[in-house]
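Appendix B. Worked example

We walk through a single record from start to finish. Start with the input: the chain for RNA polymerase sigma-70 factor, Rhodopseudomonas pentothenatexigens, length 169.
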Amino acid sequence: MDEIAAEIEPLIPSLRRYARALLHDRDAADDLVQSTLERALTRWRLRRPGGDLRAWLFAIERNVYLDQRRRAVRRGHAVDLDSRGPIPDSAAGPERSLIARDALARLDDLPEDQRSLLLLIGVEEMSYEQAARVFDVPVGTIMSRLSRAREALRHSVEAGRTTVLRRVK
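Next comes the structure step. The output line below is what the pipeline stores for this chain.
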């Protein structure tokens, strides 16, 4: 068991970061990571020896997340996404900080598979091959999905939200 813990432990911060990016809630993210680790430990014997442990754990985490999301939709449970705080970025100017905040807000508007893929590649710095293992699709599919996701996000940020002004008397 100590050997398993030694392999998994260095990956927990990445799992936690990905969960927080998906859920925007620290407690829910910790619960997701806990469920992921529990599932990984109970299915350790099913892991391919010599396989990519990081991709395997992220695939489990994504599947647990999707299961929880489907369950919440069936229950009609609403999740408050506006509880996020501002994004600290002291090195960037205020304009860049606003663009980053808008991009992250727009990220939530993307379909789940595009959002997950952008987070895995952009935030977790997974290779296309690792992401392909997480999504269980060919690398070429990952590349085309990533291109569409980036384009959708770019278009959403550039289009911006239109503000409707009212006349106040």
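Two observations about the output. The chain has two domains: 1-80, 92-161. Residues 92-161 form a domain with the Arc Repressor Mutant, subunit A fold (CATH 1.10.10.10).
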